[in-house]
User: Fold this.
Amino acid sequence: MNNELIVTSSPHVRSQDSVKKIMWSVVIALLPAVFAAVYFFQARAISVILTAVAGAVLTEYIFQRIRKKKITIKDGSAVVTGLLLALTLPPSIPLWTAFFGSVVAIGLGKQVFGGIGQNPFNPALVGRAFLTASYPVLMTTWTVDGVSSATPLSQMKMEGIATDTWNLFVGQIGGSLGETSALALLLGFAYLLYKGYVNWRIPLAMVGTVFLGAFAFGTDPIFHIFAGGLMLGALFMATDMVSSPTTKLGRWIFGIGAGVLVVVIRLWGGYPEGVMYSILLMNTAVPLINRYTRPRSLGEVK
Amino acid sequence: MKALTFKQGIHPEYNKELTKDKPLKNAKRPEEVIIPLKQHIGAPLKVLVKKGDQVDLGQKIADGDSFVCAPIHASVSGTVKEIRKVTDPGGNIVDAVVIEAAEEDKLNSGLEKHDSLDELDPAEIRNIIREAGIVGMGGAMFPTHVKVSIPEDKSVDYVILNGAECEPYLTVDHRVMVERPKSIVFGLKALMKAAGAPGGFIGIEENKPEAIESMQDAVEDDKNIEVKVLETKYPQGGEKMLIEAILGREVPAGGLPLDVGVVVNNTSTAAAVADAIRDGKPFYERSISITGHGINSPQNLIYRIGTNIGDLVEEAGGLKDNAAKVITGGPMMGKAQKSLNIPGVKGTSGILVLVRDEVEDYEPSPCINCARCVDACPMFLMPTQLANYAKNNMVDELEEWQVLSCVECGSCSFVCPAKIPLVHHLRLGKAQVMAKKREEN
Assistant:
């Protein structure tokens, strides 16, 4: 018998889930969107995605080395950020831009706040916001095989041309790498739901609000929920655990708020698309939302 | 019928099959018992014996004047060898009476035997329960007679017996329900009479079909007692969860089940009440599960209070070579022990031995706000937020966010993917709030 008994405080058993498992499951969940991107945009998609992921992982590594922290690139969280950023980029983006975007996403979006768990904003969206502000032309050029094509949202906004709904759903349209195919994104999301690694309230609230809002103001609601980055944003970015509320009511509020902002920006704003800014704006409200939506504890008299 | 339950909670692996079919059997009579003199929540006791005294089995060896206390009895006949300090399973250093066992036991408790409850009034029942030293056997060791002493301005309509046994591994309540259902029902009726409660429930998780059947048979003729089948979910046996599941009533924060007209007792406690009334037998022995993959031959035993836990482990075949952690109680709320050389007490319902592979080294990583703890907490608290407040000594926020409602069930720590010891931080938070309250008074 060993005479060194281990003593720790209870509980003495733990569930098998870990941060690493959750993050890599998100990577798996994004694979259908990656395959769709490769199918629609071929080799170009592969190089943009690999560049963005490499940029994110490398930046995470360098920051952790400099800060003399444990290197945690294997936990998959930087891969998720790189992947998400890549999926929001136009296929024609120069590779150095994609790389730079990832450096900003991880560096300014995550590590300056203290690394995983500390970032108030979704890091991938911070990277994308930076690129949109700095390289507006590169970020809105939708050239595929030398042929320029506008995205359905800008076609709708600028020229009033609608896109076929089926093409919109499967992704046979112009747009960023990962946002074109709602079908692929929903498949991946279903996997996360099955694993219990994602909450459904935020995406339901956000997509539902956009649907109702678009309908209320006389535009095509089906078009609005499948066009642009709404599916990618609602399913995979607004649901980012770190930068979304922890209460159930808070998740509803967060999703509805983001949905309202999308409708406002899309219908009356200067941009054809508003998903990115909607989520980033709602990110800033998370501490406040958590504070005011604390559930009533059992037996509490408020 | 759909199984009843509370909201939220967790589903750990139950591992009951190790001992659930092992009938209760008497552990070897110990040659020496070390009986700690504080085995209840409440005021300390005065010792009634001194070195060299001869004591009989069931003889009272310590008692107190305070209302909230429970006397302690000799668990063997023999000679008082000494009174010295020992470490109890709770980690407290307490006085204990060491009794060297004589050749034979002679029961001499001074308790009368009563075949029927009809000859006893509620006060007499409460007195027997008190004199028999009965405390809650689920682990908290709250004196049972206090629970069924209902203040003038309150009334109780139900006594609920807790047969959920939601802690993984443990099977003592299960075995008592299978083997001694009639005693449990007798005890329940005594508790109902003592508390003035017209109705009774026995709540059992649906993963114990034999116990459910056994108890249903036993209450067949009683119109006012009902067995309630509960969903298998942790912490179903927490008294607030049990009341929520069975009656849909919410115990107010800082209040007692009494405030919603309920008294909750453990099924094994009810059996002990029956033993005290019918056999004049005080609380000097109890059942225990010696279990886990680190034990050679898992068992359910009946042991004398004060038996060395190491001896009970030996009786269950001893520890395996890869045994790494010894826990008194269950894996969710039990206490890890540094040594096997401690006495079993009235609240010790299990000895669980985990092997090396089952004892992970947890290195907490930063919280990712996944809110699993929020979704698991049966009290609807926000453990991750409270843990942050506790780490930063933010006492006002801790209080405002209801840290004192934490029942320390450990569900938050269980689900945390970042392996943060949340419930530990919450315990510290509770201590901070209590310290502040004491300062203010």
